[in-house]
Every structure is written in C-alpha cells, then in structure tokens.
Amino acid sequence: MLKVETREPPVRFFEDFREGQDLPSVTRGPMLVGHQVRWAGACDNYESEFHHDEYIAKAQGLPGIILSGPLMASWLLTIVKDWMGRDARLVRFADQNRGSTMPRDLAHFHGKVKRTYEDAGRAYIELECSITNQRGEVTTPGSALVEMPRRGAGA
Amino acid sequence: MSEMVPDYITPAVRAVIGAVSPPQLATHPVEPSEIRRFHQAVMDHAPRYWDEAAAARYGGVVAPMGFPVHAHRRAEDQEDPLAAMDRPDFDGVDRALRPGLPEVVVPLKRLMNGGYEYELFRHARPGERIVLRSRYADIYQRNGRTGPIVFVVIEDSYETETGERLLLSVNTMILR
C-alpha cells in the first residue's frame, strides 16, 4: 500500500511571491461518497440526509448526493495552508458554495496572488483561490489573507 | 405572467434577527482522536497535528485551523437528529441553525450552506474545551429567477473556556 506523505509544507517567505503569480494547481478526486461519509463522521454531523441518501437528495430536487460545502471549503483551506508554507499565519479565509460537487467529480484547486503589502512592520499576501470541476465550472470561489515571514528576519 | 412572491421575512422571522445564543460549551475537550479524524477527512497530513516534535513551534500538538467550526458534538442525552425523520410534521430541514438559537420559521424546503468568512486567531489544542456563541446577524430575502431565496447570516465566535479567541466566522445559510 502507498503511504500518505506526512510532512510539513516547506517554509516560504514573503519575498517568494509576487502580485499576479499563479500558485501550483492541485487536483483531487474523483470524489467519492466515502469522502463525504468520512467528513460527516469527523464532524459528527449527519443532519442533512441529502449528503448521503440519493433518494432523499433527488426528492429535494437535487441531481443526486452532493458533497458538503464546508468539506470543500476545508479542502481549499488546507491547500492554501500548503501553498503559503510552514511558518505562514492564516489571518482570513472566505469561500462561497456557488456550485455543487458530486461523487465522481474532480476538484481542481487554483490560487493567484492578488496583492502583497506591508502594514505596521508585518508582511501580508492576499490570495484569490477557487475550486473548479472537470467542466471548468467554478464551484467554490474563495480568498485568503496570510501573514508571511520575511526572508532573513530570523525564526 | 407574474405571480405574487410570498414575503418570508414575517414579523416572527424579523423578531429573531439579532438573537444571541447562550455560550455553548463543547460536549468534551478537543481529543487527539477527533483531530486525527478531522485532518484525515480534510486530507491535511501535516505532522503538527500528532507529532510533538513537529508541533514544537506551536507549543505542542494542535488541531487544524478550521476545526473549531466543526467541534460541537451531540451530547450523550441530546435528541438524536436522525429521530426527527420519524416526526410526522418534519419536512427534513432543521431550521434552528445553531445550538441555543431559535428556529428561523421559513417554510422553504431546501437548506444550503452558502459559505464562510473566517477570521483566524490560533489553533485549538487537545484538552481545550471550545465555547461557541452565535448570533443571527441578518435575515433577508431575494427573489431570483428560480424563486425566493432567504439568506440567514450567522456570526459565530469560537473561544477557549478562558476566553482566548480561536476563530470568528460569518456563515451564510440559504433557504430556497
């Protein structure tokens, strides 16, 4: 069996990023009902039947089971954390659940540096981030503000 | 042909805008096992969540940053949410959107999570008991092409028992 790679993301510095820079896209999937079930178990939250019962999902007018929006947001938050490196401090994060992610969909995670700036001696990076599916539809647009370490500033 | 669109923002709904929950203490302190299940579910494999050496710069093992939002578990004696399906009047949507807040009595059938805005302060740690305070910040209706949509904006504050801030969240829930 392949082991999961367990390591902290490398340290990245404010100086490693520039405005307009694309961050390396990441793809996950195909999504499985199992991803959703594992998330429901982790959160001890089983209240929305349409997340695990296709019959009820369709009865409520959905095309089928959909994955939880907060799960997609949490995946996006994880990718942002990995992009920005071990010593970055996430200050703000936002997401919108604009489109559904369903079992067998792919999730492509994209990020772009929107702004780099300093304020009161601290260095910040604003990101635009999003999840798109295999049809190119943006399901989860988001944004983040991250405080970054400075190169040569010491630990 | 135009149809009358019902106004779901009734006096009863308007009356709950601004409602604040009493502090909701998590059922139990943050546990290493639930941190593991959470970081595995979000596929975040950073050793800071289980390895004391990797977590040294945090002063010890921590939970993922978004963890507090999903840390309130059902108490041993709390009603089984799945049992609600047995109630003849239950339409599948629980409209009490947070523990300690009143129902938003809007008879629309689909409840969706519109998204979050987080302000993040620090990681929660094993052994800390998370306290949630929630507030209905706003409830409003928009009438779109697909019909009326009611937005419920909920502010959630997550702190430790000693009042240290972990995370502030603004969550928009959608009824349509």
Automatic annotation (TrEMBL), chain A:
This is Acyl dehydratase. It comes from Falsiroseomonas stagni DSM 19981.
From TrEMBL, chain B:
It comes from the Bacteria. Residues 17-166 form the FAS1-like dehydratase domain. Pfam families: FAS1_DH_region (PF13452). This is N-terminal half of MaoC dehydratase. It comes from Falsiroseomonas stagni DSM 19981. The lineage of its organism: Bacteria, Pseudomonadati, Pseudomonadota, Alphaproteobacteria, Acetobacterales.
